[in-house]
């Protein structure tokens, strides 16, 4: 299949618009119209991973972390980023990254961690705002059904577990076509009064173009009257981290032992163990220290993440147990998640998990 068929599917699950501003998710190397036959999945994209892709006959590498975060001005092979990109291009291997957009969806990276820990009633720890918009359009009564159906087909009107959601208000509109107008209804120079319906629908901001294209195609007017509003509503299935409950509360030491065994950890850096049993668990793959207060407000007994600095451990203030499990360790199951996603959709497409160890951090125990 073509690269874009694969990437479009992944981006339906984790749209690129959900990535953080500093990120560089998406197709980094390759032409969307090129064909691919075999994919290699890895947490990181390194020279060794490209070598593995060459050896395995893979023509695309799908990694969680982008090999390129900042713009490259030269391709001279002076650092591992340049060498990796050069090697991929020379060998016709596409590079694709699905990073914080996969972090920020329910069912993504953090949900996978929660699944490994057998958490129940899992939800997003810090839902995001400003991802929804509301469209209001005024339609002559004769075309209401056509325009409303077009909006639904364009992706508008989907709220939680409901679709085809709209609010409709009857009224009338007035207008006067000017000399250069080509009115569908009425005559130039004469004010017209038309029975209309105001249709209101909500849609994710990243599909705005397709919603508007659908609306314009179905609307009979030469000039369509419509408004778009940015909404402050929280989107419960989009955001950072995840939180859930253990099926049975555990003492602090027992929980850490369970955590170490389950995530196959070499070491856990943590704050003082609490007196009470641990029941509610917050997680964030990668560097999640920015979510500490969200974890505390959500009533979590423990916050599992990585990349904590010395002084940041003091921020727990005996309100929560911080467990730093390591960056690679917290995200290692992302590879498994991507494999499951791709195989679910493309059963006959060859996809492999890397056997290359990409964790740059080693432990002397």
From TrEMBL:
GO terms for molecular function: metal ion binding. Pfam families: DUF34_NIF3. A divalent metal cation 2 binds at residue 64. A divalent metal cation 1 binds at residues 65, 103, 327, 331. GO terms for cellular component: cytoplasm. Transmembrane segments: none annotated. Keywords: Metal-binding. Signal peptide: none annotated. Coiled coil: none annotated. It comes from the Bacteria. Belongs to the GTP cyclohydrolase I type 2/NIF3 family. Homohexamer. This is GTP cyclohydrolase 1 type 2 homolog. It comes from Sphingobacterium corticibacter.
